[in-house]
Automatic annotation (TrEMBL):
The lineage of its organism: Bacteria, Pseudomonadati, Bacteroidota, Flavobacteriia, Flavobacteriales. GO terms for biological process: nucleoside metabolic process. It catalyses: uridine + phosphate = alpha-D-ribose 1-phosphate + uracil. Gene3D superfamilies: Nucleoside phosphorylase domain. GO terms for cellular component: cytosol. Its EC number is 2.4.2.3. Transmembrane segments: none annotated. Residues 28-272 form the Nucleoside phosphorylase domain. This is Uridine phosphorylase. GO terms for molecular function: uridine phosphorylase activity. It comes from the Bacteria.
Length: 274
């Protein structure tokens, strides 16, 4: 039997960073960037059975409308997504503490509920967007074979990853606006923001050719990693984005919490039917 010797467990046999055991997560996972948003989601739950926090990874498992769900914060960026998706997959598809592959691998539903900035003038602040696919310029492809890479802008390599088609369709039918997401490795220079030093990607603020050629609509920092790793691991992922800024028009949301709350409530209703 194949022994997955590189899996690291804590003394209590929980997985290394998430500090969770198999059986403590549901097959439906909601990821959020901000640990504070975990409570914002679970305030709508009728029951809670697991709560665990280690570093930026805060996990709560409970039920919404009778449907078991797990909410977990990833913190910011695809470096954290790498940890969260691999450890959720270990909890689901590896027998612990033996570290042997589970004889019956299972597929998780993974739904990101995140925030994002639009890079097209016709996606106003307040839009609830579902990513049909994402281009990653976050560097996660250095550790995995995500297939063909493309040079998006001079010296900027990107991988492409597609969301679960059926889940994207369900959210689109329920009013989420479809879009194509750019996942960046940082918030400032990598998203075209020049503060005291110039960004190499300032063209993102002017609907650059590669933005319109690829149909890119919004920027954030997790979706491409979630989509690409979910595909490789055999999980089904969908990414929801509350648009809080428009980088072309310069508009910012005056009520960001209301937009996020609307995404959470609508998202939970839809997920509870799956
Ligand atoms: C940057 O401020 C963070 O906000 C967005 C980005 O993806 C990045 O994580 O998402 P969250 O609000 O879900 O963290
Ligand atoms: N999150 C991002 O990463 N970028 C934005 O512009 C807004 C939210």
């Amino acid at each position: 039997m194949l022994h997955l010797s590189e899996i690291i467990l804590n003394d209590d046999h929980s997985v290394y960073h998430l500090h969770l055991h198999p059986g403590e997560i549901s097959d439906l996972i909601i990821t959020v960037g901000d640990p504070g948003r975990v409570e914002q989601v679970v305030q709508h739950f009728e029951s809670i059975r697991v709560k665990r926090q280690y570093r930026e990874f805060y996990t709560i498992t409970g039920t919404f409308a009778g449907r078991p769900m797990t909410v977990i914060s990833t913190g910011i960026g695809t470096d954290n997504v790498d940890i969260v998706l691999n450890e959720l997959d270990i909890l689901t598809n590896v027998l612990l503490p033996e570290r042997v592959p589970h004889p019956f691998p299972r597929s998780l539903i993974i739904c990101r509920m995140g925030t994002s900035g639009a890079i097209r003038s016709n996606y106003p602040v307040g839009t609830l967007l579902v990513s049909t696919s994402a281009w990653g310029i976050d560097g996660l492809q250095t550790g995995y074979d995500f297939g063909n890479l493309r040079e998006l802008a001079p010296g900027v390599m990107a991988y492409h990853a597609i969301g679960d088609e059926r889940l994207v369709e369900i959210f689109t039918n329920e009013g989420f606006i479809p879009g194509i997401t750019l996942t960046a490795s940082g918030f400032y220079g990598p998203q075209g923001r020049s503060i005291r030093i110039p960004s190499k990607l300032s063209a993102l603020r002017s609907e650059a050719d590669f933005v319109s050629d690829l149909g890119l609509t919004n920027i954030e920092m997790e979706t491409a990693g979630i989509y690409a790793l979910s595909r490789l691991l055999g999980h089904r992922a969908v990414s929801l984005n509350a648009i809080l800024a428009n980088r072309i028009t310069g508009e910012f949301s005056s009520k960001p919490e209301e937009v996020v709350d609307k995404m959470i409530k609508k998202g939970l209703q839809i997920l509870s039917t799956l």
